[in-house]
Amino acid sequence: MEKSGALTLLKQHVTSTSLIGHCLSTAAVMKGLAKELGEDENLWETIGILHDIDYEEIHEDMNKHGLAGYDILRAAGIEDNIALPIKRHNHMIFGTDYTTPVEICLQVADSVSGLIVACAYIKGGKITEVTAKTIAKKYKSPSFAAGCDRNRIALGDSLIPRERMYEIAVSELIEIKEELGLN
Ligand SMILES: [Fe+2]
Q: What pTM was computed for the model?
């Protein structure tokens, strides 16, 4: 599945511009982490785009998050190599159980993408001015972008050194800055 096909499917279930932006930014980080780890960049990017496909349809019932997404994806003919990591990315259900690189990196990308976009906002929307140092500093400030779960970001430390992960994530987000409405 290519990025454009995944995005078309996402938009059949999600209308919020900010949620679509979140999915695109999670996907961009996933792609960069896949490249770093020698994994399938296209597959990981697709998982990132589709990971919150159920979010508007579950009406904030987080017990359904991921599980409903799995059903939507399977009904659309999407294979388990994409649909299963999405089902299991709900850390409130499966959070003690991530061992594979794709599942760990989806936790990282889902959380760090929001932290970095928030860093861009305090720089007047200029993501090109966000550095690994900026991100590291804001990581340590729990009240900043408080919804970005630091524990989920820390899961990635078993795979990629933290500073390197920040560099990859921010460079991938810079690549799609126009799509995110950033400079
Ligand atoms: Fe997400």
A: 0.97
- For residue 125, give the 3-state DSSP assignment: coil
Tens of pLDDT, residue by residue over 56-105, are 999 999 999 999 999 999 999 999 999 999 999 999 999 989 999 999 99
Ligand 1 centroid to Cα of residue 126, in Å, is 22
Give me ligand 1 centre to Cα 19, in Å: 8
What residues does each domain of the chain span? 3-175
Angle of helix 101-122 versus helix 132-139 axis, rounded to 10:
100
State the distance from the centre of ligand 1 to the C-alpha of 169, rounded, in angstroms.
15
Q: Which fold has domain 3-175?
A: Hypothetical protein af1432 (1.10.3210)
Mind listing the pLDDT tens digit for each residue in 149-176? 999 999 999 999 999 999 999 999 999 9
What is the whole-number distance in angstroms between the Cα of residue 11 and the centre of ligand 1? 15
User: Measuring CA to CA, how many Å separate 137 from each of 15, 31, 131, 140, 142?
Assistant: 33, 24, 10, 5, 10
Distance (Å) from CA 23 to ligand 1 centroid = 6
Give 89 Cα–ligand 1 centroid separation in angstroms: 9
